[in-house]
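Lab notebook, page 48
Experiment: co-folding of the full assembly
Goal: obtain a model of how the components sit together before planning crosslinking
Operator: M.T.
Materials (sequences as entered):
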Amino acid sequence: MAIESPTFSPLYRQIKDLLIQALQAGEWQPGEAIPSENELAVRFGVSQGTVRKAVDELAAEHMLIRRQGKGTFVATHDDPRSFFRFLRLVSNTGSVEPSISVPLECVRGRAGQEASRVLSMEVGEPMVMVRRLLKFGDKPVVLDEIYLRGELFVGLNLEVLQSWEGSLYSLFESRFGVRMIRATEKIRAIAADRNSAEVLCVAENTPLLSVERVSHTYGDKPVEWRRGLYLTTEHVYLNELG
Amino acid sequence: MAIESPTFSPLYRQIKDLLIQALQAGEWQPGEAIPSENELAVRFGVSQGTVRKAVDELAAEHMLIRRQGKGTFVATHDDPRSFFRFLRLVSNTGSVEPSISVPLECVRGRAGQEASRVLSMEVGEPMVMVRRLLKFGDKPVVLDEIYLRGELFVGLNLEVLQSWEGSLYSLFESRFGVRMIRATEKIRAIAADRNSAEVLCVAENTPLLSVERVSHTYGDKPVEWRRGLYLTTEHVYLNELG
DNA sequence: AAGTGGTCTAGACCACGTC
DNA sequence: ACGTGGTCTAGACCACTTT
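Observation: model returned without errors.
Model output:
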């Protein structure tokens, strides 16, 4: 008679956790292929079908990407599909303009009360703050203020940001080994203050979206706190209610 | 030598489509249990595992709900979990207040150019327009203007709306047999005009979220076009980026 | 005890991509 | 031709709910 574990978890979920551990440890880099299902089945001592179910869940959560005939790959923020998962902004007209990130400021400091609460840090721990502007074509559309756990982003500065071609998450992933997995956004409507209005080239008190985001990496660890001001005269925040 | 169908679709997806058809036809009502996996396997002449995969997908899309030991049930908007899928508004404080729907107006008319385009109708086809206010506690928070395909909602009027306890989608589902499956929202920040400001009890030009929604029923048929004005001083629109 | 969904296995075959 | 993921099957057993 076996004692039931109080927190029973099926085999495929244990395999899933092992895979997440391996991903977190960097055993396979973003963009690389992981071993085939059969190899993983042998490695973990389970059937191929059980590995399959674990991989299925990770693929559904966008941590892995399956490609029939080729293999299963570690997801990467370089992938253009990943862009729109984390920036749900499209043009009113539906036309697709490329966005350009313009870093404005990058300063290091210590966590205040609010930041430490949101990022599960102690007050006074090192932090990095980034301000940047996002342009669609010539027009400034998003003003972001980004707070990051300092210990994870040593060496991040304005120069690094300015010389990087690509998305921020792409940079974080390849330069600092921090992969954003999921995020939560809180959206409000606010009036532009003098400073934001100036940067976004609109009149003071123009209504803006305030998008507050907390991003998490493996193990649901919060690593980024971000507040974006979105100008929505020519763009829209798109959301699917599935 | 068989000719390959150009639009190959695996067995479980065909089963899935058959299940959707049955749901659409109302073979099983919202809240009811559908036949067991084994029964369905016999009925469709496939293995239980194939039925399982079809049901898995429908459960992932919230059309069915699995309950171990009990059976698989047709999803219903009466379920409180369904509420927050389609109204992603929570209090700033995190406290959960119940929301009350106050119908203001219900008029019938004919589709204009914009409405007909969004709902894939012909200009001039019958429509119903509903205006309603959503209150959290005593406070008005959302002003909705809702356009529905008239032919699907015969008998919908202000009296029906006022006498209904529960969500709109709950009413649509049980009274008119129209189940909303998924929706797309476009979010902007705008300034309250005189009328909206008055109804929401705020000053003119107060920033509001403009949430434009198109809801779809089975077969991705658009049946509702809705524009909500959200007051976000004490509430937030919550979104998960998975 | 019986019925439901949930897990796990093993094996066969298909579709896709590469060599 | 071969290796990959994708589908389908059949059967065993587990966990949960109801009778």
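Interpretation: The two ends of chain B are 44 Å apart (CA to CA).
Next step: discuss with group before ordering constructs.
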